[in-house]
Amino acid sequence: AESRVVNFGPGPSALPLPVLEEAAKGLINFQGTGIGIAEISHRSKEFSAYLDGVESQIREQLGVPPTHSILFLQGGGTGQFSAVVLNMLARHRLLHPELEDSERVMDYVLTGSWSKAAAQEAGRLAGGARVNIAVDARTLSSGGKSFDRIPPHEAYAFSKDPALIYYCENETVSGVQFSNDESAPESFPFHLLPQDTLLPLVGDYSSSFMSRPIPRLADHAIIYAGAQKNLGPAGLTIAIVRQDCIVDVDAAAKLGAVPVPTTLAYKTFADQKSMPNTPPVFALYVTGLVLKRNSELGGVAYYEALNRRKQEKVYKVLREGEAKGLLKGHVRQGSGSWMNIVFVVLGDGAEALFLAGAEERGLKGLKGHRSVGGIRISLYNAVTEEETDRVVEYIREFINQPP
Ligand code: PMP
Q: What's this protein's family per the entry (predicted)?
């Protein structure tokens, strides 16, 4: 444990040390069964009970209403780029069998590279349906190319009866996140959506899940997240799906919808308690340990307060660096993510020096994504306030004595 560094990696990312220590024991002997967690049958009563516990922890901590099911899937966020399209087009087919394919529309809100990737996948799987870009935040940036903001509400153009409305709540690469304050101009424009109690709203929460409460969770058709940022190891994908979106994809296929692979159909998982096949047992195990710890600490309310303080400290020193002309944030004020803070270090070779100095101090994982460059500080739940203070202190030192 003493050999561990501070890990600001974007994902997979830091996990709480006490959880890792507990998980190490579970790898050898899961709950006194004498069998390790990676070895025990997923159909054993011990594992089934454990899985029930993971589900109820998520339900309780996020306040998931009984209208929504919690599904444990594989294939990551990328798998969901496909699954949401296939399941929601099947649903639209069952609701409106009379429509021509060209009359089916999927609305995508583009605020960064992940929502862009999701929209591309929708294009691949759309069949005859259309992808409508409800807004492309790049067009609002000064060069017309950069994802550097959450669009103002007047920029959105939603369709009338779309099969789905897609957004990515936190763009991990660009460092852009919707505000969780519904009165802020950078909040998601719920009031502009079609008036529908069964709104087909899909939110990618891959990099902010469990970091704070989800605004209007109950109004969503689907919320999904890979576990590998705030919750546990990669391999587990969590989807919260409103029951009217868990559809009979075979009945839809009979009406002309694209057939849906068994492992991508929500109904397969909903009907079989998320175990139509072998689930990612180890990832579920660690996720359960993290959730238990979360609940002891005070749940998402605790993390919201903690994460608010962490990001405030980092943005504060970033603003100080900007005032000195040494740093430059990638994202406009108000649109900055709490989880991934992206900026550049100005000056020839300054960035390399910044990173080398950070390495020396045991502050790792700070290099920005190859597509954006610069520095990215990821502040997921397991990054402590003390660790955040260490990177803030380092940045302050750096801007006060530039190389
Ligand atoms: N969406 C977001 C917001 C992400 O950050 C990521 C991964 N970093 C993905 C989707 C893709 O997830 P995965 O790697 O689990 O397929």
A: Belongs to the class-V pyridoxal-phosphate-dependent aminotransferase family. SerC subfamily.
Candidate of 172, 229, 237, 376 to mutate for ligand 1, largest count of ligand atoms within 8 Å of Cβ = 172
Catalytic status, residue 229 = yes
Q: What share of the chain is helix, strand, coil (3-state, %, to 5)?
A: 40, 15, 45
- Over residues 338-352, the pLDDT tens digits come to 999 999 999 999 999
Confidence of residue 196 (pLDDT cuts 50, 70, 90): confident
| Catalytic residue from among 114, 267, 310, 338 | 114
- Protein residue whose Cα sits closest to atom 15 of ligand 1: 76
Helix (H) or strand (E) holding 72: strand 68-73
CATH of 299-400, one of 3.90.1150.10, 3.30.70.250, 3.40.1790.10, 3.30.365.10: 3.90.1150.10
Q: Is the CB of 11 under 6 A from ligand 1?
A: yes
Task: Give the distance (Å) from ligand 1 centre to CA of residue 95.
Answer: 30
Q: Cα(202) to centroid of ligand 1, in Å?
A: 15
What is the b/e burial string over 354-375, where b = at least 16 CB atoms within 10 angstroms of the residue's CB?
Answer: bbeebeeeebbbbbbbeebebb
Q: What is the pTM of this model?
A: 0.98
- Residues 16-25 have pLDDT tens digits of 999 999 999 9
Nearest to 110, CA basis, from 70, 64, 65, 155: 155
Residue type, 338: W
ipTM for this model: 0.99
Q: 371 C-alpha to center of ligand 1: Å? A: 15
Locus of tokens 């359960």 = 288
Known catalytic residue at 271: no
